[in-house]
Amino acid sequence: MDDSKIRQHISRQFNTELEEIRHKVLVMGGLVEQQLALAIQAFTTNDMETAELVMRRDNLINDMEVEIDLECTQIIALRQPTAFDLRLLLTVIKIISELEIAGDHAERIAKVAIKLSDTEGKHDQYHEILHMAELVKKMLNGALDAFARMSIDGITVITAMDEKVDLEYAGIVRQWVTHMMEDPRNITRTLHSLWAVRALERIGDHACYLCEHLIFMVKGEAVRHLSQQELEEKLNA
């Protein structure tokens, strides 16, 4: 699907409003991607300045979520859209909510980085989460790219990555718990670190939810709670 479906209105102003909404969602998504990258950088390199930057910029994401939500609500009330246009606006409202939550998780990672700077003990195993972080970044970027293209082609490739993220998360938890048992001095530090890894795993989940919302937008079908196999079968039917 391309974006031709939102270029067929008699009202040019309506076209403009929808295009502006889409643009703002992508800007918001780009900011969340930046927040995630900076939070991981702060966490893995003990960069307090970057961690504080992530925390300060979280309000920008919150403000954008409120602004876009209000604009969508106003368009629905004034334009009374139907069919694809209505699904687009409803999807945008859901997407910005997922992005706002993902931004909160990125901020949580940054907060953990700051806590670790004041915690005794040593834990230099943060390189273990870098591969997991790359997977999550790809999921988020892929979902936003699909929204930009107004297409669900290849969307199951993105959702399939969530299982890999979950496996990475489980592996890190097991390994870090072992580190705690081996050296009790690192218990507090490792517990804080596990909260950051959990936040990263949750961002992957929200990237999956973005994909589910996009499927509703394009096909008008709810696919929440389907397994990966069921999702693939449904989209390939």
TrEMBL record:
It is found in: Cytoplasm. GO terms for biological process: intracellular phosphate ion homeostasis; negative regulation of phosphate metabolic process; phosphate ion transport. One of its GO terms (cellular component) is cytoplasm. Keywords: Cytoplasm, Phosphate transport, Transport. Residues 27-112, 129-212 form the PhoU domain. InterPro entries: PhoU (IPR028366), PhoU-like_sf (IPR038078), PhoU_dom (IPR026022). Plays a role in the regulation of phosphate uptake. Belongs to the PhoU family. Homodimer. This is Phosphate-specific transport system accessory protein PhoU. It comes from Methylovulum psychrotolerans.
